Amino acid sequence: MLLGSFARSARRAQFPRRTTLGLSLQGARRVSTLPNNRDIYVFKHPLDASKSLLTLLDTEPPTPQLALGTTTSLPPTTTTFTENPNFLDILQSVLSDHATHDPDVKQQAAVFASPGGFNLGGSGGRDGAGGANHQGGMGGANRGGWVHVSDGRNPPDWGRIAWPEDIFGSVEVDGEGRFAGEDGNYQASGTYRIITREGILNLSPFLRSKLVQRLREMEASTNTSSSNDI
């Protein structure tokens, strides 16, 4: 009788589920991600056990040349993270191809050209970067100019310009908010940093999908080349 009562009590008991920040379950394996950005995966560096690779791809083993960079601590900081120059080149190439198709950028262009449009392309209260900074685009109120493409980790206040380290680059728009050509004459800022005190790379869903697509294509090409060399 005591045994039966114990069994019934055990069935009624509810135990809290164990959760682990920064881990996601994919198929039969667990892949570690950054707690503050689940789109960035963490792997041990295949050539240096003291470092971790941060990447947008969940492929294991990872491809170091396609990673954001390496870090000696988790979470990464501005002093422990080392950027991968190759990744920055890929990022800028994707932005050049797709920034003008991003819903957020198109919305900024529309606001920029409106009668009450504010100057996204001037210096404002901050030292902006990219085409607007170097070429002096006037911007706003049907005059045309430059719209900045910025990281989402530290959105500026309405009517203000993002900090230089948060600006990927700029696209040119005319007085009606139309982009100059297919790519908006995209110009990289030269000031962007993958990680700052405000956080790590945070792209819009549209641009992130385009970047991941490009990285997967390059990863497949790299793996094919490696197989052919065997």
Tell me the count of domains: 2
Helical segment tally?
5
Helix vs. strand class: alpha+beta
Query: What is the H-and-E element order?
Result: HEEEEEEHHHEEEEEH
Strand order in the largest sheet = 1-2-3-4-5-6
Ends apart, CA distance between termini: 69 Å
Number of strands: 11
Q: What report would you give on this structure?
A:
With 230 residues, the protein is α+β, with helices and mostly antiparallel strands. The chain folds into two domains: 75 residues, no CATH class; 110 residues, no CATH class. 29% of the residues lie in helices and 20% in strands. The strands form three sheets. A six-stranded antiparallel β-sheet has the order 1-2-3-4-5-6. A hairpin with a 7-residue loop joins β3 and β4.
Structure characteristics:
alpha+beta, 230 residues, 5 helices, 6-stranded antiparallel sheet
Write the layout of secondary structure elements.
Layout lengths: L1 H11 L10 E4 L2 E6 L2 E8 L7 E4 L13 E3 L9 E3 L1 H14 L4 H11 L17 H5 L9 E6 L16 E7 L13 E2 L6 E2 L2 E2 L4 H25 L1
Helix pairs in contact: 2-5
How would you sum up this structure in a few lines?
This protein has 230 residues and is of the alpha+beta class. 29% of the residues lie in helices and 20% in strands.
